[in-house]
Design goal:
144 residues
């Protein structure tokens, strides 16, 4: 059970060998995973079930750990990129969205390496200290 951020979440997983006909459709397919989550979020009950496929042969407990790790990455990086930098609203076309995404990732990494309390705080401080960002980048590359 996970009891954080105003929620209580129970998780259970099942792993089944992939049927032969599905293995023929997806090269490397090894198993089907079924995950059930239930509990309360912000005082409201919920229940959800999700199915996945994988090319890994892991136990149900190992898949649960990897799934939670994936969401940790999703929440730690992608959510920040979507909310703080509004990357989901980037105009399509050309190379500008890709370049902004790369710069945003650099900035997130620098802010975390310099141990600012929050990302917005780090962005505000570093916006006024371009030389500090440059020194951080060149120091990192020269020691490699």
């Amino acid at each position: 059970m996970d009891a954080t951020h105003q929620r209580q979440v129970h998780r259970r997983a099942w792993v089944y060998p992939a049927p032969t006909d599905l293995q023929q459709q997806w090269a490397g397919l090894k198993c089907l995973i079924w995950v059930e989550r239930w509990g309360t979020r912000e005082g409201k009950p919920f229940h959800e079930q999700v199915g996945s496929i994988s090319d890994l042969a892991l136990s149900a407990a190992e898949f649960l750990g990897r799934i939670q790790q994936h969401w940790s990455i999703e929440n730690r990086l992608h959510w920040i990129r979507d909310v703080t930098f509004a990357e989901d609203y980037a105009r399509p076309g050309g190379s500008a969205p890709v370049m902004w995404a790369i710069l945003n990732c650099f900035l997130i990494s620098i802010v975390r390496q310099l141990r600012f309390r929050t990302l917005p705080q780090g962005v505000r401080v570093l916006t006024k200290q371009v030389n500090r960002v440059y020194q951080f980048l060149t120091r990192g590359f020269s020691s490699a």
